[in-house]
Automatic annotation (TrEMBL):
Keywords: Lyase, Metal-binding. The keyword Cell membrane does not apply. It comes from the Bacteria. Gene3D superfamilies: Phosphoenolpyruvate-binding domains. GO terms for cellular component: cytoplasm. It holds the Pfam family HpcH_HpaI. Belongs to the HpcH/HpaI aldolase family. One of its GO terms (molecular function) is metal ion binding. This is Aldolase. InterPro entries: Aldolase/citrate-lyase_domain (IPR005000), HpcH-HpaI_aldolase (IPR050251), Pyrv/PenolPyrv_kinase-like_dom (IPR015813), Pyrv_kinase-like_dom_sf (IPR040442). PANTHER family: 2-KETO-3-DEOXY-L-RHAMNONATE ALDOLASE (PTHR30502), PHOSPHOENOLPYRUVATE CARBOXYLASE FAMILY PROTEIN (PTHR30502:SF0). Residues 19-229 form the HpcH/HpaI aldolase/citrate lyase domain.
Length: 242
């Protein structure tokens, strides 16, 4: 069974933790994903179909089978960071971080006083010191990366290559190699600073390539993508004539 302390210990030792990303709603979906042996499951409130009201059941299902429930918050605003933690999340992955000062504000919103400003009112779960992972997906955050990596209370950074490519003007296949170099640089700088780092991936092969460079927050797949691919493969197999 993995818990948030285990993840911190694993990452501090430079070892990877492998997780899955969920866009689909429901406790059953979450339990199915966690039963694969994933160290963590991320419930995506920003782009996924789950709502805050679903979180107590979803996070309980993930915990029950030995995985760590993390939530990508809807935004980086104070209430959007704290609310999932009150509803059972053991950590948050926060999008749209603008820079180092913004990072400090977000981390403070996830910590109780005196270290932060989070209000006491938890309804589910038991994470008094939740994991706080901040997303690097804006050019301004990349510009301040070294300062951001030095912010107290940061448990890790998580790179969103899609939004980062748009922010840097590097979207599309023509810029694939250039973007990959940027991602490699971010991984290297985070490792040098002693901060766990991950890059969002949709396949195990991509995840393995980031891990080979030292990424330790290793998201292996996204449920909607994997489901679509698997069902498509079964349909193709059934329709193929010998």
């Amino acid at each position: 069974m993995t818990n948030d302390l285990d993840l911190r210990t694993t990452w501090a030792a430079g070892r990877p933790a492998h997780g899955l990303w969920s866009l689909l709603p429901g406790a059953v979906t979450a339990e199915v994903l966690a039963r694969t042996g994933a160290d963590y499951v991320v419930v995506d409130l920003q782009h996924g179909a789950a709502s805050e009201a679903d979180l107590p059941g979803i996070t309980a299902a993930i915990r029950a089978v030995g995985s760590v429930p993390l939530v990508r918050t809807r935004s980086s605003s104070f209430p959007d960071v704290g609310r999932p933690l009150d509803l059972g999340a053991h950590g948050v992955i926060v999008p749209n971080i603008r820079g180092a000062e913004h990072a400090r504000e977000v981390i403070a919103s996830a910590r109780y006083a005196p270290g932060g400003g989070r209000s006491i009112g938890r309804l589910a779960g038991d994470a008094d010191q939740p994991l706080v992972i901040l997303m690097v997906e804006m050019a301004t955050a990349l510009d301040e990366l070294d300062d951001l990596l030095a912010v107290d209370g940061l448990d890790g950074i998580y790179v969103g290559p899609g939004d980062l490519s748009l922010s840097l003007g590097l979207s599309g296949e023509d810029h694939r190699d250039e973007l990959r170099a940027v991602l490699s640089s971010i991984i290297a700088r985070a490792i040098a600073a002693g901060v766990p780092v991950g890059v969002h991936a949709y396949t195990g092969e991509d995840a393995r390539s980031y891990a080979a460079e030292g990424a330790t927050i290793v998201t292996v797949a996204v449920d909607t993508v994997s489901l679509s691919q698997a069902m498509g493969q079964h349909l193709d197999a059934a329709r193929t004539t010998s």
